Amino acid sequence: MTRFAARCPAAAHAFAATLDDDVTLDGASGHHLSRVRRLRSGELVTVADGNGTWRPYTVTVVRSGAVELHAGGERVVEPRLEPALAVAFALTKGAKPDLAVQKLTELGVDRIVPLQSRRSVPRWGSDRAGAAVARLRRVAVEAAAQSRRARLPEVDAPRPLTDLHGHPGLVVADPAGDDVGRVPSPPEGEWMLVIGPEGGLDPDEIANLGAPARLRIGPHVLRAETAAIAGAAILTTHRATPRDHPR
After folding, report:
1. How many CB atoms lie within 10 A of CB 28?
2. Which residues are within 8 A (CB) of 174 and not within 5 positions of it... i.e. 6 or more apart?
3. pTM confidence score
4. pLDDT digit string (tens) for 100-137?
């Protein structure tokens, strides 16, 4: 049996707190599956706990706003891709952070870190930050269901760029950087890709990060959210499941 929920021929994917033999999905998930996806009794769905474990289920009952499921197989633990991948991107205006989180989740990023840098235009105060991060986490859950991930990415509260100083796997997006094949493997198992704001990172900010690797994403000027997505996609091509690594 496949170890990835995305490779199971299911009609839909959802998340639940527990993966018991019988599960009822209500709330937002139940509404989506019953009213939007219009699932029917007998269809196969996969359900994950958000921490890497998933299970196949058969729909037994569909009612308004809820679906009832019965397990059709054992629990499966989805393997982690290695190295781990975190993306720290400078905050941008409007719905752009939502787009970045959505696409980074679909790409399999493990951790998403909104950044405050010197040239960042948006400044989230403590009141706004709480609501904004909650929204980004909802976006991540929806994108993880769409892409059928068993693990939800961590979405951090906004942090200053200086917090990343000393991270052993720092990679800064840089038009004059190296091809991905020359970016070293992270010594502690996690790449931390750093994306600056529209005006780029201040040279002093980059210097204060230490000696990060530099990744060339392409020849053109990219919007911050596009650079985050493109950089994550490039690094993802150099990740693998543990059994795929040479011994």
Report:
1. 14
2. 214, 215, 216
3. 0.92
4. 999 999 999 999 999 887 766 666 666 677 888 999 99
